[in-house]
Design brief:
This protein is of the alpha/beta class. It has helices at 14-28, 52-62, 71-76, 81-84, 93-102, and strands at residues 2-7, 32-37, 66-70, 88-91, 105-109. The protein is globular.
Length: 110
């Protein structure tokens, strides 16, 4: 099953923790999962922030998680996507709509 997970919460919130745990469970069950970071969730892109969730995200990427970060939201927060993390792709609103249309399920953890 192809699943998209949308996350807008700051990396230090319970919502972010829950999203990463759910994604881990989905990947372990053999699902194809894509995480789309919006608003403050784009801060998960910043490596070595001392945040355990950033480390957890890296581990999930190694297990096959695809990650997009909305480039407009990253830019608003001073994050330069091309230089931050090559494993996280820049995303757009059009790309988000296409992803949601192509997935079997969309889970919003806002």
């Amino acid at each position: 099953m192809r699943i998209a997970v949308l996350l807008k919460s700051n990396p230090y919130t319970e919502e972010a923790e829950r999203a990463l745990q759910i994604i881990s469970d989905m990947l372990a069950s053999g699902h194809n999962v894509t995480l789309y970071l919006l608003q403050d969730a784009v801060r998960l892109c910043q490596p070595r922030t001392g945040n355990a969730r950033s480390t957890q995200l890296e581990a999930l990427i190694e297990k096959g998680l695809k990650v997009f970060a909305l480039s407009n939201d990253a830019k608003l927060r001073g994050i330069d996507m091309p230089s931050i993390n090559a494993k996280i792709q820049e995303g757009s609103y059009d790309g988000l709509v296409e992803l949601m249309d192509s997935c079997d399920q969309v889970v919003g953890i806002l």
